[in-house]
Amino acid sequence: MQLLDVTDLNTSFFIDGKVIHAVDRVSFSVSKGEIFGLVGESGCGKTMTALSVMRLVQPPGRIVKGQVVFEGRDLLRLSDREMEGVRGDRIGMIFQEPMSALNPVFRVGEQVSEAIIIHKKVGKKEAKGATMELLRQVGFEDPEKRYAQYPHQLSGGQRQRILIGIAISCGPSLVIADEPTTALDVATESQIINLLQGLVDNSAMSMIFITHNLNIMRKFGQRIGIMYAGRMLEQSSVDVFFKEPLHPYSKGLLSSIYGLMGNQKRLTAIPGFVPRLAELPRGCTFHPRCPYVMPVCREEEPVMKEIGKGQWVRCWLY
Ligand SMILES: Nc1ncnc2c1ncn2[C@@H]1O[C@H](COP(=O)(O)OP(=O)(O)OP(=O)(O)O)[C@@H](O)[C@H]1O
Ligand SMILES: [Mg+2]
């Protein structure tokens, strides 16, 4: 049984009489204890997918259709009050902008405590004890000292640890981490990845890990979904994906990091650019950049097909 089952999710922006399909027929599942990597270039709809699951899409955006079944309930059918109970309690989120997520005028320890007080409905003293424990859990050896510091006194990696602490403070069964390492240097990035991996390993927690960096997923997580222009183009297990990427876009992404296609170390970027969502091409959205384009690709959009067990692709080649 899946922890999260997203089916045919559609989230659009309605601007000046135009509709922009930011999330277009997206489906994926996350099972218990699993890390699901949601990967794609800037603007492809990763954050909007996450915000839709959390029901935090703001106007002029709106969830138009779909199902988000989490722990047996469709979140899109819950009342606002019920949804508040899910947010922060059952699903923790690490937002994309780490600086704006912390309040600069409060000590970081107080901010973690505040989250615990709100969601666990405990007193100040108990919350402070829990905060110390949590700070240790996210890798601080000197929780007393950290508790009293302000966000600007911490490094980027340390601030990210605080945000991870807040996200897991109520023992959620799912954490959504939106590019939690993008602003960090490579060494700090791998420390944060190790921390997240450890947290998932040591609890029954699952995670949606959002990144534009495919490379991170090579050694991290169980399943991966590749997004492009609001759509999911491919999904499979991490192992299978890196051995046998199916979609020409996935192959292009991989070769742009490893030069796989030419069997050389040189960087081969995918020619062309990501289309604007307001001006998507007919047919397959990737066809103008695809080296394997066929006449049908220019006319009709392919549907997601299951090629092997748990290996899905949206491409006319299959
Ligand atoms: N406030 C907004 N108003 C109008 N359109 C928006 C708004 N926010 C997002 N969009 C549209 O939704 C699309 C997806 O945005 P989203 O933030 O999900 O991308 P992303 O994959 O998270 O990108 P990034 O890697 O840059 O964070 C954008 O390309 C844009 O067209
Ligand atoms: Mg984003």
Please explain how this structure is put together.
The chain has 318 residues and is α/β, with parallel strands linked by helices. The protein has 2 domains: 2-90 and 172-244 and 304-313, P-loop containing nucleotide triphosphate hydrolases (Rossmann fold); 104-169, no CATH class. The protein contains 12 helices and 12 strands. The protein has helices spanning 46-53, 80-86, 98-101, 108-120, 124-137, 143-147, 156-168, 186-201, 214-217, 238-243, 248-258, 295-299; strands at residues 2-15, 18-31, 35-39, 61-70, 73-74, 91-94, 174-178, 206-211, 223-228, 231-237, 305-308, 311-313. The strands form 2 sheets. It has an 8-stranded mixed β-sheet with strand order 6-7-8-3-9-10-12-11, sandwiched between helices. Strands 2-1-4-5 form a 4-stranded antiparallel β-sheet. A hairpin with a 2-residue loop joins strand 4 and strand 5 (73-74). Helix 7 runs parallel beside helix 8 (186-201). The longest helix is centred in the middle third of the chain and has 16 residues, at 186-201. The two termini are 28 Å apart.
